[in-house]
Amino acid sequence: MDLHLGHELLLLHLDDANGKGRLSESLLSAAYGGSVLSQWRLDGQLVEVEPRSYRLAERGSRWGSLQAAESVMPDRPASIAVLLEALQGWRASNRYGPALKELHQLGCVEPEKDRLLGLPWRTRWPERDGEVEQALIQRLRGHVAGDPALPADRSDALLGILVAVGLLDSVWSAEELEALEAPIEARAKLAAVGMVVRNLVKVERMLSGVPKL
């Protein structure tokens, strides 16, 4: 199934059984923004016009969720960090809502509304059809286990985001991660956007006094 990286991140973020997210709001915000920027880089929409300065050269992504993200992108060239900040300043319902609805339309998740004192409280997104996520997990596992000289691709872009926000345990067990730390790190370092997200998360954790991942 042809998903964008934001979809793939959300599938790994959501608990299959209860539909709750694994990441905090701040980490998910950074991860989703990085996934969107990475997708635009892969599609050739986000271009480097001068060293470390990027502009969304083309608009009109085929996914409505990416079109919505385009609306907050500045017209002038900016660094990846500034573009991430623009996406993070967006309301959460606008950021993730369209992508979650697309996953529902594709049959991947099924929304369930929780109520508190009879009033709508939150929406959970438990798994409906796990084949898509399992195929994604197998792709990532196979990519890391493959030739380390392979050129960077979309799997590296997603790996870079997963490393940055500590979501690798949605793909590998703790024992596997201990053995695969070096090859995963090597692949993740090929993802430029992921490295910016990683630095952003480190700074936020230092400022908040939270231990690093």
Rg over alpha carbons: 17 Å
The CATH architecture term is Orthogonal Bundle
Mean pLDDT: 90
* Major sheet details: 2 strands, antiparallel
Strand arrangement in the largest pleated sheet: 1-2
Assign the CATH superfamily.
yeast vps74-n-term truncation variant domain like
Helix content: 40-55%
Commentary on this structure:
- By secondary structure, the protein is mainly alpha-helical.
- It has one domain (5-208): yeast vps74-n-term truncation variant fold (Orthogonal Bundle).
- It is built from nine helices and four strands; from the N terminus they run ααββαααββαααα.
- A two-stranded antiparallel sheet has the order 1-2. The protein has a two-stranded antiparallel sheet with strand order 3-4.
- β3 (112-116) and β4 (119-124) form a beta hairpin.
- α7 crosses α8 (174-188).
- It is globular, with a radius of gyration of 17 Å.
- It starts with a helix and ends in a 5-residue tail after the last helix.
- The model has no long low-confidence stretch (mean pLDDT 90).
Describe what is shown at a glance:
The protein has about 210 residues and is mainly alpha-helical. It has helices spanning about 5-15, 25-45, 65-70, 80-90, 90-105, 130-145, 155-165, 175-190, 190-210; strands at about 45-50, 55, 110-115, 120-125.
Layout of strands and helices, then pairs:
Elements: H1 5-13, H2 25-43, E1 46-50, E2 53-56, H3 64-70, H4 80-88, H5 92-105, E3 112-116, E4 119-124, H6 131-145, H7 154-165, H8 174-188, H9 192-208
Antiparallel strand pairs: 1-2, 3-4
Helix pairs in contact: 1-2, 2-4, 2-7, 2-9, 3-5, 7-8, 7-9
